[in-house]
Amino acid sequence: MKVATDRLKEGARAALRDGELRTALDRATGVFLGNRQAAVAAHPGFEALRVQAAAVKAHLLDHLDAYLERLVDALEANGVRVHFAADAAEAQEAIVAIARAAGARTAVKAKSMVAEEIGLNEALAAAGVTPIETDLGEYILQLGDDVPSHIVGPALHWTRERVAALFHERLGTPLDADPAALTAAARRELRDAFLRAELGISGVNFACADSGTLAIVENEGNARLATSLPRVHVALMGLEKLLPRLADLPTFLALLGRSATGQPATSYVSLITGPRRPDDPDGPEEVHVVILDGGRSAVLADPELRDALRCIRCGACLNHCPVYQQIGGHAYGWVYGGPIGAILDPGLLGLERTHELPHASSLCGACGDVCPVRIPIPDLLLAHRRRAVERGLSPAVERLGIGAFAFAAERPGLWRAATDAGRFAAALLERDGRVQGGWVPVLRAWLAERDLDLSPGPSFRERWRRELQAEGRRGDDGDEA
Amino acid sequence: MNRASFLTRVRHALGRSEGDPVAPPPPPAPAELVAPTVAAADPAGVVDHFVARCAANAVELRRAPDVDAAVALAGAWLRELGASAVADASSLAAAALAGSGLTRLAADAADVGVTRAWRGVAETGTVVLRSEDGRSAGLLPPTHLALLATADLRAGLTELYAELAAVGEGGLPAQLVQVTGPSRTADIEVTLVTGVHGPGRVAVLLIG
Fold first, then answer.
1. Does B197 touch chain A (CB under 8 A)?
2. A245: domain CATH number?
3. So what's the pLDDT on residue A463?
4. How confident is the model at residue A424, as a pLDDT?
5. Below-50 pLDDT ranges, chain A
6. Helix axes A19-41, A249-261, angle to 10 degrees
């Protein structure tokens, strides 16, 4: 996927002006939030499961080399062919080679974030293989020439009217078709593709190192079809998507469904342990796994950032983020948006192109509170912000402003003088109850993306002084007893 | 990239060397943490829980006291569910289909697919299908009827996975699928629609 992570502000501005997008986001994130809350409330052990999952993933990442080795041995013992990709280009190359060897003309694809990450569709098309997205949301986006905006609901930024108009034009459904009729049309269209495709491509939710079992979690059934009907199945995974044991799956399945969509169990979980056996009536003859590094080993090497790789892609941090709720996923400029994108993208793509993303946060902490594997997302946002400053990537105006703030904040007399002057100046610049940046250089830049209400009464320091004076104590800037 | 250099890169990233020991992982979560509302020690409670979860998942459920009654009931139920049917490779499903007298069609043309369920999970109202019984019958038709023996019902996922782990290397089927209710999507304006790619109607016949 094309990287546009350095265009956050433009993306956010465009999103904020898009009324249709705001309505769609509001509706979707509201439903996700309510469903998750109800499911979590109904499960008394949920917090303990989060602690368990965090401990298992932390252990896994700390010993990932050994677990990868175990997984690969187990996969190969099960008859699965394993391919290793250092980067997107190598992953594309491996899958194109598999497609060619399979004589594939079409490939049916179940949802895979890694496939988006490496731009797989473009690579397949260039090699003469037609990729067909089969997740309903992804199918809509492919028909509509758009890209996903959410990990779980890729097309949640589309209104039903827009989908109906697209399907009317492309599939001949009535213009006023409802979601059920639109879904039925997609089922008919895609069923045919499933029956004729030579290659099925899927992601992986969890790869169990002990048994070499791939767990694929879904609701639609397209992943079951894509991994069952075509002669060849390729599963694409990031190198961090392991669990030490099959016996860890119940914990992660219980967390993933509830965190993502509020489901105690999703409709389907496929557990794939190799290609079809000689006596099986059906199933793929070949199963391949492509394991992608793609910058992950660099994140792994960084103890401060390693926790970001615990992510199980549930999307809860997106749904709960007040910034994501307003701007949606596209503004972040890459496949992973929202709070997890803001901490993962700088690790995978480098801070130079992504240092704005960790600022797309009010640091309210909701992302960390809901994360099923307890990734300390707010801490990681701050770590990236700090590194951006240390490396001189933050804007000069911001550094100047923060420097002046720090200088004044360490000097009580100066602080008082500055805040008094500031309050006076703010009163002069006030219009409609809000402070306007006007012509003042640093202030104008600061206020371009922020609202500052005119302070309604005396400052905290003034009130504090008055309270102390009323109690007969000193009320100046000296140290209080 | 080849295996050795790929793994070496990960190993170096962690500051580890080849053959470095792996501390034991935290023990898996106890069953009561994953499924606090159902206990394996109470078989009647397990069945009740399964029945209640099926209802919550919009899964139709009927019960038969034994296999003979189940085959007769399944035949009649299949006739209610459609005009043509397909069975998986299990003898139980084949008997049910034979008893129904319905037209047999290929899985992508039949109205109903009847399958045996290898296991059931009460905690979530799930049936588990096994690839040696075939994958298409429970997947392609718009309606799926699963035949599940109460003896194959497990309290929670923890018990199911303990069993799978015990099967050990090479013993697991090529594919197991946990089926929990109908195929669902909410990709258009988070409006729930059933039957997008898999069966939109799921029925379970509980035997015993």
1. yes
2. 3.40.50.10420
3. 87
4. 80
5. 478-481
6. 140
- Tell whether the model's pLDDT for residue B151 goes beyond 60: yes
Q: Domain check: are A118 and A263 in the same one? A: yes
Q: Does B20 touch chain A (CB under 8 A)?
A: yes
In-domain check, residue A309: no
Question: Does some domain include residue A241?
Answer: yes
Instruction: Please report, in angstroms and rounded to a whole number, the separation of the first and last CA atoms in chain A.
Output: 60
* Full residue range of the structural domain in which residue A222 is found: 43-294
Measure A456 CA to nearest chain B CA, in Å: 42
The answer to whether residues A21 and A369 touch, using CB atoms and an 8 Å cutoff, is no
Q: Which DSSP category does A477 fall into?
A: S
Contact criterion met (CB below 8 Å) for A240 and A61:
yes
This model's pTM is above 0.95: no
- Give the pLDDT of residue A479: 47
Domain coordinates of chain B in residue numbers? 37-207
CATH topology of domain B37-207: Rossmann fold (3.40.50)
Tell me whether residue A117 is in a domain. Answer: yes
**Region label for A19, one of left (φ > 0), alpha (ψ between -120 and 50) or beta (otherwise):** alpha
A171's CB contacts (< 8 A; 6+ apart) are: A185, A186, A189
Residue B105 makes CB contacts below 8 A (sequence gap 6+) with B84, B85, B86
Is the CB of residue A88 less than 8 Å away from at least one CB of chain B?
no
Residues A257 and A158 in one domain: yes
Q: What is the 3-state secondary structure (H, E, C) of chain B?
A: CCHHHHHHHHHHHCCCCCCCCCCCCCCCCCHHHHCCCCCCCCHHHHHHHHHHHHHHCCCEEEEECCHHHHHHHHHHHHHHHCCEEEECCCHHHHHHHHHHCCEECCCCCCCEEEEECCEEECCCCEEEEEHHHCCCCCCCCCEEEEEEEHHHEECCHHHHHHHHHHHCCCCCCCEEEEECCCCEECCCCCCCEECCCCCCEEEEEEEC
Contact at CB, B2 and A84, closer than 8 angstroms: yes
Alpha carbons A197 and B188: distance in angstroms, whole number: 25
**Both A380 and A363 in a single domain?**
yes
Residue A480 included in any domain: no
Number of domains forming the structure of chain A: 3
- Chain A residue with CA closest to B181: the answer is A267
Same domain, A388 and A402: no
* A324 and A411 both lie in a single domain: no
Q: A285 and A197 in one domain?
A: yes
Q: Is the pLDDT of residue B169 over 70?
A: no
A31 with A48, same domain: the answer is no
ipTM for the complex? 0.98
A271 Cβ under 8 Å from any chain B Cβ: yes
CA distance A252 to A21: 32
For A425-443, give the secondary structure using H, E and C. Answer: HHHHHEECCEECCCCCHHH
Residue A434: both structure tokens together: 């809000």
